[in-house]
């Protein structure tokens, strides 16, 4: 079981601003990068929203097109 933390926040000048933030946690057994991002987007109400995903190895950043926001997903191994 791997635990993931999700943070969805606004941006200013392309950088995370944290004027407001929504947070969530979830766990997964059999996971792929695609499954992780889909679950995180669903938790934040971003299902079917297109954007760019950046993979940093043990964390991800999803930047939706046309929105000044960013979604971070971090892996917590236990």
Q: Evaluate the radius of gyration.
A: 12 Å
Overall SS class: mainly beta
Please outline the major beta sheet: 5 strands, antiparallel
Name the strands of the widest sheet in spatial order: 2-1-5-4-3
- Given as residue ranges, the uncertain stretches (5+ residues, pLDDT < 50) are none
What is the average per-residue confidence, as pLDDT, rounded to a whole number? 96
How many domains make up the coordinates? Answer: 1
User: What is the overall silhouette?
Assistant: globular
Q: Kindly, what is the distance between the CA atoms of the first and last residues, rounded to a whole number of angstroms? A: 8 Å
**Number of beta-strand segments:** 5
Pattern of helices and strands: EEHEEE
Work out the helicity level: 10-25%
Oligomer: single chain
Report the sheet-strand fraction: over 45%
The number of distinct helices, counting runs of at least 4 residues, comes to: 1
Give an overview in words.
There is one protein chain. The protein is mainly beta and 78 residues long. The chain has one domain. The protein is built from 1 helix and 5 strands, in the order E-E-H-E-E-E. Strands 2-1-5-4-3 form a 5-stranded antiparallel β-sheet, covered by helices on one side. The mean pLDDT is 96.
Helices and strands, with pairings:
Layout: E1 2-12, E2 15-28, H1 33-43, E3 51-55, E4 59-64, E5 69-76
């Amino acid at each position: 079981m791997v635990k993931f933390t999700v943070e969805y926040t606004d941006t200013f000048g392309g950088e995370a601003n944290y004027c407001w933030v929504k947070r969530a946690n979830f766990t997964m057994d059999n996971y792929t990068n695609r499954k992780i991002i889909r679950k995180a987007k669903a938790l934040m109400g971003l299902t079917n929203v297109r954007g760019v995903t950046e993979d940093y190895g043990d964390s991800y950043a999803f930047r939706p097109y046309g929105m000044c926001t960013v979604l971070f997903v971090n892996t917590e191994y236990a």
